Amino acid sequence: DAGVIQSPRHEVTEMGQEVTLRCKPISGHNSLFWYRQTMMRGLELLIYFNNNVPIDDSGMPEDRFSAKMPNASFSTLKIQPSEPRDSAVYFCASSLNEQYFGPGTRLTVT
Amino acid sequence: AQSVTQLDSQVPVFEEAPVELRCNYSSSVSVYLFWYVQYPNQGLQLLLKYLSGSTLVKGINGFEAEFNKSQTSFHLRKPSVHISDTAEYFCAVSVPSYDKVIFGPGTSLSVIP
Q1: β-strands B19-21, B73-78: how paired?
Q2: pLDDT in tens, A54-65
Q3: I need a surface site. Which of A27, A52, A78, B94 has the fewest CB within 10 A?
């Protein structure tokens, strides 16, 4: 199994641009999670899906952030417009019983 | 609601010495407990988990943890650490039948040669 796949691994963009992060969960897993990790705030849960349905999006910082899961094998996290304070590492994780994390996307907004 | 406390933000230890990373949790219901490890520039990897049964749980890389319900603790231990154990360690808790996992702030373990 390839594990959780995230793309891109690194993203550098200018303030105001739209950013789309992608995640392919492990086949057969029914839950998917998006996290953000920074030195200041640590690991934060942004949103999670169960069977492609958003269950808890209380961690989404503001309306600039949106996430979708159109099918069981793909999810996106979009930031529009991006701001420098969005710079962080974004992790996707999927689970059946315990969570398996992807390698993360390091986002830098200048 | 559940919460996790990791009192030690940084733990330096000499190579081949024992180490204990502390974790305490708060919950009004039964919980599952986890330890994850994050190596530099990587995602989190599950070290071990407690779901039920024996309170002493053994994980990968020689780590083990003991669930203590009366003290609401789940401390992680290793009898002899290696340089390669240098990483960030996260304790986490979840409620059975509920996917959401609450992570602690992490403990940075530095193994000194």
Answers
A1: antiparallel
A2: 999 999 988 999
A3: A27
